[in-house]
Amino acid sequence: MTAPLALVTNDDGIGSPGLAVLAEAAARQGWRVVIAAPASQASGTGAGVTAVAGHDGHIPITRQPDGSYAVEATPAMITLLALHGAFGGPPGIVLSGVNRGANIGRAILHSGTVGAALTAAYHGVPALAASLDVGLGAVTEPRWDEAGAITSQVLPRLRELAPGTVLNLNVPGNGRVLGLRTARLATFGTVQISLAEHGEDFVRTELTETAGEREDDDTDLVLLTAGWATITVVEAITERPPDSG
What we know:
A 9-stranded mixed beta sheet has the order 3-4-2-1-5-6-7-11-8, sandwiched between helices. Strands 9-10 form a two-stranded antiparallel ribbon. The longest helix is centred in the first third of the chain and has 12 residues, at 17-28. By secondary structure, the chain is of the alpha/beta class. It is built from 5 helices and 11 strands. The relative contact order is 0.15. The chain has helices spanning 17-28, 75-83, 112-122, 144-154, 220-226, and strands spanning 5-9, 32-38, 61-63, 69-71, 93-100, 127-133, 165-172, 180-182, 191-198, 203-209, 229-235. The termini are far apart.
């Protein structure tokens, strides 16, 4: 039986070490791996399917020396291209990350890392979004090895996923991981955007870290802050009937 093809992508760009972490974890599962990621930073793009295309509609793709693909497109768009066979056949699994920075709470709506995974799930393909918490202004090198170890524990769970869902994994970045916990989404993420300054013809925003005091103890924000790796099952798109009466 042919091993499944795993697409590894991200929103940090083709040069991020997090891609190799996911690729190695997938290879340890016996999966075949193809890496295709944005040619440049694409954080905050959510599930947007935009690309840099010429007048002829061509999307530039550059094959890297290691065989990976640098694509002038968002992570979600790259996932769509992969599902249509653009990188050696449609993948049976999509792994997004490992992102440099946590993706937790309802703020994952804006994450390009999570957006790629949700795009895969929408098309019936099991997917994982993996992130490493480094905090704002971190100067030390993230513990990619810790992210790889936790990710390897989680990957077998992809086989158990219900259609249309993804696993969202976050790992503490300080190297002191207490273990792995299932978590609910917090109201906010690790950071919030605020308006720092505005004038007649400009605005300036800033990011501030959220403390988590307003969150319940079983949310991803509180658990991650306490040193736990967190995993949350997230649905891609759902609907519910309008309220009766």
